[in-house]
Amino acid sequence: MTKKFSQEHEWIELEDGVATVGITDYAQQSLGDIVYVELPEVGKKLTKDGDAAVVESVKAASDVYAPLDGEIVEVNEELDDNPALVNEAPESDGWFFRMTLTDESQLDELMDEAAYKDFVEGL
Amino acid sequence: MADQESELLKTALYDLHVELGAKMVPFAGYAMPVQYPLGVKGEHLHTRAKAGLFDVSHMGQVRLTGENRVAELEKLVPGDIAILKPGRTRYSAFTQDDGTILDDLMITNAGDSLFLVINAACKDDDIVHMRANLGDGVSLEEIDDRALLALQGPDAAKVLARFAPSVADLKFMSFAEIDIAGSPCFVTRSGYTGEDGFEISVPNADAEALARKLLAEDEVEAIGLGARDSLRLEAGLCLYGNDIDTTTTPVEGDLNWIINKRRRAEGGFKGADVILDQLEHGADRKRVGIKPEGKAPAREHTQILNADGEEIGEITSGGFGPTVDGPIAMGYVAIEFAEPGTKVDLMVRGKARPAEVVELPFAPHRYFRG
Fold first, then answer.
1. Interface test with chain A among B32, B38, B228, B295, by most A beta carbons within 10 Å
2. In sequence order, what are the beta bridge partners of B108?
3. Which of 3.30.420.40, 3.40.50.970, 2.40.50.100, 3.50.50.60 is the CATH number of A2-102?
4. What distance in Å separates the CA atoms of residue B163 and residue B157, rounded to the nearest whole number?
5. Where are the domains of chain A?
6. Which family does it belong to (chain A) (predicted)?
7. What ipTM was reported for this prediction?
């Protein structure tokens, strides 16, 4: 079970054929106080780099992209009542959705934790 | 990007903002703090609970002198400026020949002069407009050696009185020249948050020292432009460029109250024929408060629909109100939908979402009227 990262600041973690996706700590810090998260519907087909969810801070709405191809199997309903969970625990309890992957080998195109850390430091 | 940033103007408090850890963004040609480490929501709630200090030095400060200054300025604004006593301030707008709004502004009778505060993004246009239209007897001085700070919130008066006891006597929309911590300031009891508070014009050379003194008080936190926007939206106050602009008249903008009785009778300001006709017969559309029913904010340019799915208007400012603890917005709707309680739909990301026309403000004004 390894965690991978996209250049759009999503993290993805595969376990037993299901990948959990959220936004990174760097992303939540950049966005500031999150006040609303619009999650996709279960069953929605996702295309890598296509729209998957929307996260809203006081000031602005930002798109969250699908890090890989696949299909939504579960969304984090707790974010409806407590969107601030994304600020408090972005890379654990503040996950956005779970998806099956069309092609697990796509994971290789994403960054590992060390590469993502370098990527963020270069921004 | 680097070039753009180097061309940005800096206020007298720039170094202090950076020291405080502000996120700096370009705004109207200036590098301005959008938020500090406390964050937009925390800054907003702090201002409503205690006191917030804002750097609004990007705004334009102008002094008009000359015997005819009042009569000449009245040709450009629909407000009754002649009736303003020394030490009184009024909100007004520069109107154009077609009745639309070139900018909104604050006008103070400072005794021997008129003191104006105009929007940062409109400053150059406003000055050209005034120079072109104010008659020979009026001189216009751009005050560029002063910063402008705003101290806002229920504790603002208590805090500022520690440095200048006489501010306690100022009432809402009043002005006085007062020494604060030894510096000659122009103090107006006004603001852009709906709270009690002050706007303080202070010499650039003293601005940082004054800001540090105020921030050292327990009640005061530095507040950025992000919270300034959410505070003013909850207070139902217009943002020029969003809620009013060169396509909207004061009547459409629900600003009838800025057109005073004598001016309604006499006219004599730019666009008076259009504006007075709208006052008498009504306008086709109006700025209203909009409360989305769910939790999803509706941002500016969101379409507003009636029950039949027809477009009846557009959101001009929308976001999340931390005090309201939910989404809030304002926008223009066709006049038959402007009554509070009217149900409408907002098209957010291709989905119609229910909302209601409501009275403004979303957060009650708490001005000090004495």
1. B295
2. B89, B115
3. 2.40.50.100
4. 10
5. 2-102
6. Belongs to the GcvH family.
7. 0.89
pLDDT in tens, B118-133: 999 999 999 999 999 9
Cα–Cα distance between B351 and B57 in angstroms, integer? 41
Q: What is the mean pLDDT of chain B?
A: 97
CA distance A84 to chain B (A): 11
Which chain A residue is nearest to residue B35, measuring alpha carbons?
A: A32
Choose from A33, A41, A51 for mutation: most chain B CBs within 10 A.
A33
Q: Is B320 on the interface with A (CB under 8 A)?
A: yes
Report d(CA B341, CA B344) in Å as an integer: 9
Our CA angle for B209, B212, B216, nearest 5°, is 140
Q: How far is the alpha carbon of A61 from chain B, nearest alpha carbon, in Å?
A: 8
Instruction: Name B93's Cβ contacts closer than 8 Å, sequence gap at least 6.
Output: B77, B78, B79, B101, B102, B103, B104, B105, B244, B250, B255, B258
CA-to-CA dists, residue B35 to A38, B55, B196, angstroms? 24, 11, 21
Asked whether the beta carbons of residue A58 and residue B44 sit closer than 8 angstroms, the reply is yes
